[in-house]
């Protein structure tokens, strides 16, 4: 695909991410000016999406984005107030557009209506906001300002003046005079300060007093108090309240929606939108890759220089050697920064799932307790973006088919509310995503019958549960007689499997009748920065991820694999790293690293093994690169190119398993 | 096997081989090889290629192949991201229609070699990339 189009897709993704985040903030009580800033941001976002869709040649998408933009416009003009149900509808609308965009990216045709699922709700909102005859008001004429100044107000500014007055908020005028040389900086600073305390409605030109030099402005500001004024000496020409909301007839106030109660925070809060001077650079993935490749070339040049220097023993070369070492640190820092640019928190996926679950739960009449774990985990953006649709599908399936209706749950002695747990975690060289529900579980008998109907099972075959569960991942497999609006069209699970396998991962299903089911997606980690303990074995340097290291200990006498060593008063088995990795075994070692299962608490019930090493060197961050399938080596998570070769990073979980295998072989004398 | 397309004739594993250019990503100069801890059958180690690790084939582990006599002159990078060390690049050839002959007899290399073409000098055998990958996967599972 054209690279410039890739940029547009990436920007659309960012815009959807921002829209989701902003909508989420609207669910919490916010001061009115923060709500206004958020709605304005959402209006701009949908407006940009509309334009981009038009540019990409998707008119139906563009129209759908325009419809949402209209809703945000009605909100910002005060004709729709922000309520939970309105925000839920908008979240569902944004989600529908985002899913639609993902479909377009994969080459699917445009649907008839992207907003089909929320068409009724959006129609109601539009009807609610439509002014009835005689209802449109313009209260801006109440402002104590000269008529020529009032004429300068735009339509939007007039609607805002009307809305804030009807909400009972006073409007002030702050006349300021600024120096020619610094007026832009000062105006921005004062506007930002006012924006954090209330709503800055308009910045109007103002008459300059004859005895002053500079530029004069009148800032129309809605809020409770202006004190202390965010200005420097001599800048203020005048400051006064332009209208008292008490002047508005009560009868008029009752005819428009009441605003949500304003809960002002104790201290001024930061605006919900990013600071205007926070510049955001968007880089296409190819450019980051090109930078990484260039960085690698620099790293290789550094390695060559280092090898040349090592040929000479002269003391005067210590300085260049030290410089190369500094270069190593600098290169790693840049590599980490580049990697960071590719990463995104799993939270961003969860933020799409939460509103969808809420909306489905309501539509299906199934109360759900959604538990999300591991949102802080950072994964490659491209991976999460490719998996998003699969996750959404799995969640829809779990709600639609997995969880029972409340009456059915109660009859089975379960709580009326179903539970859906979604967790993300890192296990060695893999990322793991688990989706658990406490519903009815997979109906294995029905899967078997359907498998026979479709010819996926041979006559006389007695499949085990695992084989039956795998059948659900076959193209077109569905046990549902009719497709529901939510899922069950049989076009999902095979797509999920294909997506996961295309990423080099695996999908695993397990189930217990009436207890629920678990869907586990395991995906290889392609790149990561890992904090490692560096050790030497057989002349090679290895990195052991510190997250799995419980303790480093040195014995008084050299020990060999197969014995038990005392660690914090307990005896645990010892095996050499060499034996685990299939290297030549040492006679004995004094130093060992105690590894524990990741996530397992130290102490009772945890699984620990002391791994003997020749020498412990130091610790540090390494940029891990995974190994391709043909080079995957037992016990190795990946490698990190270093000055003197590759530092192999061990996979602690795998090494624990290999150590136990080796110890068993010793016991069996094999 | 398709007989159309371009071919790269190389010397590797003590044989003259023909690599289909459709299966080739590129040919690059050899770079330092990093052996993997615990030697995997069929794989010598990895090289760093465009910022990623690339496995390098160990010809000597393949049935019917000979250990290379010296360091490689080049690495052929297959589309399937496997590097083949080459002793020598011989030439490129265009379509070779009608020249292919299926090999008969029990050649131990038939798992990874296909039909041959009699060119000037010794016959050159088609490297069956799919068969080679299948063989490497079998090595792994049998380990």
Provide key terms for this protein.
heterodimer; A: 670 residues; alpha+beta; Four Helix Bundle (Hemerythrin (Met), subunit A); five-stranded mixed barrel; 42% helix; 23% strand; globular; B: 143 residues; mainly beta; six-stranded mixed β-sheet; three-stranded antiparallel β-sheet; 10% helix
Description:
The complex is a heterodimer of chains A (670) and B (143). Chain A is of the alpha+beta class. Chain A has five domains: 127 residues, HPT domain (Four Helix Bundle (Hemerythrin (Met), subunit A), Up-down Bundle), CATH 1.20.120; 116 residues, no CATH class; 60 residues; 179 residues, Heat Shock Protein 90 (2-Layer Sandwich); 142 residues, SH3 Domains (SH3 type barrels, Roll), CATH 2.30.30.40. Chain A has 19 helices and 21 strands. In chain A, strand 8 and strand 9 form a beta hairpin. In chain A, helix 12 runs parallel beside helix 13. Chain A is globular, with a radius of gyration of 32 Å. With 143 residues, chain B is mainly β. Chain B has one domain: CheA-289, Domain 4 (OB fold (Dihydrolipoamide Acetyltransferase, E2P), Beta Barrel), CATH 2.40.50. The longest helix of chain B has 14 residues. The radius of gyration of chain B is 15 Å and the shape is globular. The chains are: A alpha+beta (670), B mainly beta (143). At the A-B interface, helix 10, strand 20 and strand 21 of A face strand 4, strand 5 and helix 1 of B.
């Amino acid at each position: 695909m054209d690279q410039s189009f890739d940029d547009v897709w990436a920007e659309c993704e960012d815009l959807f991410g921002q829209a989701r985040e902003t909508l989420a903030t609207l669910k919490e009580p916010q001061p009115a000016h923060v709500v206004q800033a958020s709605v304005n941001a959402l209006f701009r976002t949908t407006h940009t999406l509309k334009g981009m869709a038009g540019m990409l040649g998707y008119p139906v998408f563009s129209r759908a984005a325009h419809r949402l933009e209209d809703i945000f416009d009605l909100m910002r003009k005060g004709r729709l107030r922000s309520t939970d149900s309105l925000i839920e509808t908008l979240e569902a609308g944004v989600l529908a557009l985002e899913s639609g965009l993902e479909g377009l990216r994969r080459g699917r045709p445009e649907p008839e209506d992207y907003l089909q699922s929320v068409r009724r709700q959006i129609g109601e909102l539009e009807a609610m906001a439509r002014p009835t005859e005689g209802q449109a008001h313009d209260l801006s004429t109440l402002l104590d300002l000269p008529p020529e100044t009032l004429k300068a107000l735009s339509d939007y500014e007039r609607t805002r003046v009307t809305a804030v007055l009807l909400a009972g908020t006073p409007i002030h005028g702050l006349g300021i005079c600024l120096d020619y040389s610094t007026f832009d900086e000062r105006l921005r600073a004062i506007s930002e300060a006012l924006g954090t305390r209330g709503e800055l409605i308009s910045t109007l030109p103002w008459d300059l007093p004859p005895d002053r030099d500079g530029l004069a402005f009148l800032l129309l500001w809605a809020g409770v108090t202006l004190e202390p004024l965010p200005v420097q000496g001599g800048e203020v020409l005048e400051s006064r309240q332009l209208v008292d909301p008490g002047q508005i007839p009560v009868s008029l106030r009752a005819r428009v929606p009441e605003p949500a109660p304003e809960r002002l925070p104790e201290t001024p809060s930061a605006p919900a939108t990013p600071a205007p001077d926070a510049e955001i650079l968007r880089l296409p993935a190819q450019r980051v890759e090109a930078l990484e490749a260039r960085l690698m070339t620099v790293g290789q040049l550094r390695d060559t220089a280092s090898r040349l220097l090592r040929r000479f023993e002269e003391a005067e070369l210590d300085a260049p050697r030290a410089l190369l070492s500094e270069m190593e640190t600098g290169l790693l820092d840049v590599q980490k920064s580049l990697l960071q640019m590719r990463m995104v928190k799993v939270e961003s996926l969860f933020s799409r799932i939460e509103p969808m679950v809420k909306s489905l739960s309501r539509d299906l009449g199934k109360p759900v307790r959604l538990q999300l774990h591991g949102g802080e985990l950072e994964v490659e953006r491209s991976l999460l973006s490719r998996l998003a649709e699969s996750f959404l599908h799995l969640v829809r399936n779990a709600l639609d088919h997995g969880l029972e209706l409340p009456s059915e749950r109660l009859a089975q002695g379960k709580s009326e509310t179903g539970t859906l747990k979604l967790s993300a975690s890192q296990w060695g060289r893999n990322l793991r995503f688990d989706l658990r529900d406490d519903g009815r579980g997979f109906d294995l008998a029905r899967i078997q019958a359907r498998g026979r109907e479709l010819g996926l099972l041979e006559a006389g075959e007695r499949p085990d549960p695992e084989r039956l569960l795998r059948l659900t991942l076959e193209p077109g497999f569905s046990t549902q007689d009719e497709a529901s609006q939510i899922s069950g069209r049989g076009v999902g699970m095979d797509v999920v499997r294909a997506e996961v396998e295309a990423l080099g991962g695996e999908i695993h299903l397990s189930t217990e009748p009436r207890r629920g089911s678990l869907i586990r997606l395991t995906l290889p980690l392609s790149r990561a920065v890992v904090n490692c303990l560096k050790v030497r074995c057989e002349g090679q340097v290895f990195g052991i991820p510190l997250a799995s290291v419980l303790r480093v200990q040195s014995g008084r006498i050299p020990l060999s694999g197969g014995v038990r060593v005392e660690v914090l008063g307990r005896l645990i088995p010892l095996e050499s790293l060499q034996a685990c990795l299939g290297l030549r075994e040492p006679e004995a070692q004094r130093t060992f690293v105690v590894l524990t299962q990741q996530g397992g608490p130290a102490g009772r019930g945890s699984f620990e093994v002391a791994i003997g090493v020749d020498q412990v060197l130091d610790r540090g961050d390494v940029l891990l690169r995974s190994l391709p399938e043909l080079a995957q080596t037992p016990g190795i998570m990946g490698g990190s190119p270093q000055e003197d070769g590759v530092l192999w990073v061990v996979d602690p979980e795998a090494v624990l398993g290999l150590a136990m295998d080796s110890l068993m072989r010793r016991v069996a004398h094999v | 096997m398709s007989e159309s397309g371009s071919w790269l004739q190389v010397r590797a594993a003590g044989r003259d081989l023909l690599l289909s250019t459709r299966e080739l990503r590129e040919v690059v100069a050899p770079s330092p090889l990093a052996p993997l801890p615990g030697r995997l059958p069929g794989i010598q180690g990895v090289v760093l290629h465009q910022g990623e690790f690339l496995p390098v084939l160990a010809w000597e582990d393949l049935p019917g192949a000979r250990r290379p006599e010296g360091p490689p002159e080049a690495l052929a990078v297959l589309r399937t991201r496997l590097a083949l060390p080459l002793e020598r690049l011989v030439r490129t050839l265009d379509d070779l229609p009608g020249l292919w002959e299926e090999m008969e007899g029990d050649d131990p290399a038939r798992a990874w070699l296909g039909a041959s073409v009699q060119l000037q000098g010794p016959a050159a055998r088609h490297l069956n990339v799919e068969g080679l990958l299948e063989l490497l996967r079998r090595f792994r599972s049998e380990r």
